[in-house]
């Protein structure tokens, strides 16, 4: 956590998983364990912070142990680079499997993401198992926060891997049946909804943007309900967040969303600190040619550039730029660590490989567009005045002030693409809108890629299947 980061080696040793065991129930390797440590509010608070630390992940450019979790720092591979938005610069290595839709079950990034978020779930379960040591008032808050973060982890996993193991408690190392039994996505979603409803009830909005809040829980639950087709409930949640008294609004300058951290548009973000081995991120460097370890990843496709050029308005120049080192190659502008004088973007990290740019998980513009989607309720279009008002607010901020009189599903999907470009939403939007098959198939054909319908799910990591001794099954197509 950026604001209150106090995690120490003690908790890392308590909560980290042995690479020789399942990711879901690690053996404890120190004399201090969860039973003896979590004895009061202060100690449980460090456990809550440790959940955020799990999502934050480890800067792989600074701490190079490949067995550590990298979590959100590798999320762009399994989301944006599996869409029509981004690609590698050189089409080389394991990263290129994502852009070409040729992912193998042995892909280390796929395993890394899976491992990372089950570790987050373990950390959340550890807090939930020790709520009895908390004061009554703090127990409500701790439970709400831990369940929000557990739901966030499960929501990402179920959308990416499909049916997955459900672990809602601390399990012993030999409980392989729980660790390796895939349950239906519907059952996973039942836990996600329950956890988020608890979070909505137990959280307020007074804390920093890199801590869970009621608005964050409502926004995430609204997205879950949209995914499940529960549109009326999603609409109500969005409208509650949009209430004037909640304090959220669009930034007048699109650039400030990403470079004036903690602004009124941000609802929930994962915090990072510059020039810190423990609390910095490396994805900002990886997106820049020859700055990170890669030769350039998450580079902008011609398809995404065409959308932004046509419909981005003043967002376009602040979404991508040409690589100064190679004409015809284009980089993501959001989250630049080393600034850009021509765009008025400040330097956020003197060392780009130790970037401090926060990762925004949920912001107000997203809520406004989810509001439109909820009102549309799976239909082909809407002329609802409430939907038009929300849609127009996002367009007006982009300098596209022509009055909108109706919105089609395709127009909403396009607006989400240009507003939330490179924020790891495109792939999920395509799937949720029921348009992934057509759009990705056409994109694959046009670019001579290998997309097929089974590519909508990632493979279950082969290392997990091996650990399960045959209990864990593979997704079709792998």
TrEMBL record:
Task: Tell me the first and last residues of the signal peptide.
Answer: 1-17
Which Pfam families does the annotation name?
SusD-like_3, SusD_RagB
Name the coiled-coil region(s): none
SusD-like N-terminal domain ranges (all copies)? 69-226
Entry superkingdom? Bacteria
Localization in the cell: Cell outer membrane
Q: What are the alphabetically sorted keywords of the record? A: Cell outer membrane, Membrane, Signal
Report if keyword Signal is assigned. Answer: yes
Report what the protein is called.
Answer: RagB/SusD family nutrient uptake outer membrane protein
């Amino acid at each position: 956590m950026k604001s209150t980061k106090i995690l120490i080696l003690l908790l890392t040793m308590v909560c980290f998983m042995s690479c020789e065991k399942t990711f879901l129930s690690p053996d404890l390797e120190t004399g201090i364990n969860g039973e003896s440590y979590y004895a009061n509010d202060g100690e449980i608070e460090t456990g809550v912070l440790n959940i955020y630390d799990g999502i934050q992940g480890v800067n792989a450019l600074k701490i190079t142990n490949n067995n550590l979790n990298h979590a959100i720092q590798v999320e762009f591979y399994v989301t944006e680079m599996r869409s029509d938005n981004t690609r590698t610069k050189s089409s080389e290595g394991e990263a290129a499997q994502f852009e070409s839709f040729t992912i193998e079950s042995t892909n280390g990034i796929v395993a890394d993401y899976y491992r990372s978020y089950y570790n987050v779930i373990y950390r959340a379960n550890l807090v939930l198992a020790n709520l009895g040591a908390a004061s009554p008032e703090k127990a409500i808050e701790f439970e709400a926060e831990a369940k929000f973060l557990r739901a966030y982890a499960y929501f990402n996993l179920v959308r990416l891997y499909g049916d997955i193991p459900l672990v809602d408690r601390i399990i012993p190392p030999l409980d392989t049946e729980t660790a390796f039994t895939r349950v239906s996505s519907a059952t996973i979603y039942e836990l996600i909804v329950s956890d988020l409803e608890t979070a909505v009830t137990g959280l307020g909005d007074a804390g920093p943007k890199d801590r869970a809040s009621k608005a964050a829980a409502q926004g995430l639950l609204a997205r879950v309900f949209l995914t499940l087709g529960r549109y009326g409930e999603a609409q109500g949640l969005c409208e509650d967040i949009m209430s004037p008294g909640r304090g959220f609004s669009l930034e007048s300058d699109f650039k400030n969303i990403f470079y004036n951290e903690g602004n009124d548009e941000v609802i929930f973000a994962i915090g990072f600190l510059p020039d810190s081995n423990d609390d910095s991120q490396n994805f900002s460097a990886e997106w820049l040619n020859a700055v990170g370890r890669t030769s350039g990843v998450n580079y902008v496709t011609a398809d995404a550039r065409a959308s932004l050029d046509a419909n981005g308005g003043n967002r376009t120049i602040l979404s991508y730029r040409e690589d100064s080192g190679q004409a015809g190659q284009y980089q993501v502008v959001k989250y630049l660590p080393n600034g850009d004088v021509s765009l008025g973007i400040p330097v956020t990290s003197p060392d780009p490989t130790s970037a401090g740019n926060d990762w925004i998980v949920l912001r107000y513009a997203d809520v406004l567009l989810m509001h439109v989607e909820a009102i549309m309720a799976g239909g082909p279009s809407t002329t609802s005045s409430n939907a038009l008002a929300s849609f127009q607010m996002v367009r007006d901020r982009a300098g596209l002030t022509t009055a909108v009189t109706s919105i089609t599903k395709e127009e909403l999907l396009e607006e989400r693409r240009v507003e939330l470009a490179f924020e790891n939403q495109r792939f999920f939007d395509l799937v949720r809108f029921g348009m992934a098959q057509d759009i990705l198939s056409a994109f694959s054909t046009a670019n001579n890629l290998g997309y097929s319908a089974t590519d909508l799910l990632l493979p279950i990591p082969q290392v997990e299947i091996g650990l399960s001794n045959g209990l864990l099954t593979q997704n079709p197509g792998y």
